[in-house]
Amino acid sequence: MSTEAVAKRLVAMCRHGQFEEAQHELYAKDAVSIEPESMANGPLGNVKGLDAILEKGKRFKDSVKEMHGLEVSEPLVAGNWFSVVMTMDVTMKDYGRVTMTEICVYHVKDDKITSEQFFYDAGG
């Protein structure tokens, strides 16, 4: 599967809220997930390995009271890399309703996502 095919599949699955399914299908077992520096050591911080990424996703899902909206842009592909803009309108259990927008950058090797890195302004 080409990088473009992986990117399009991830976008399609995310648009349907199938995050965990996408990770099982598209991620390498040793994939890494990287957050902005200020968030790297927090409960949703940097992790390595598919199991740790799945657990991180579960922690995020558990912190959400209600998902009001989700938008995922078309992917921008360059070689083995692609990026998307993801915007979520959510009510968080701890601090209410927020709109979160981030740039997500992915690396693909041997038809699997080997890294995901997120860029966003933490706390605002």
From TrEMBL:
Q: Which Pfam families match?
A: SnoaL_5
InterPro entries named among the record's database cross-references: NTF2-like_dom_sf, SnoaL_5
Q: Which ranges carry the SnoaL-like domain? A: 1-120
Entries under Gene3D superfamilies matching the protein: 3.10.450.50
Top-level taxon in the UniProt lineage = Bacteria
Q: What is this protein called?
A: Nuclear transport factor 2 family protein
Per the UniProt entry, what species is this protein from, by scientific name?
Dyella telluris
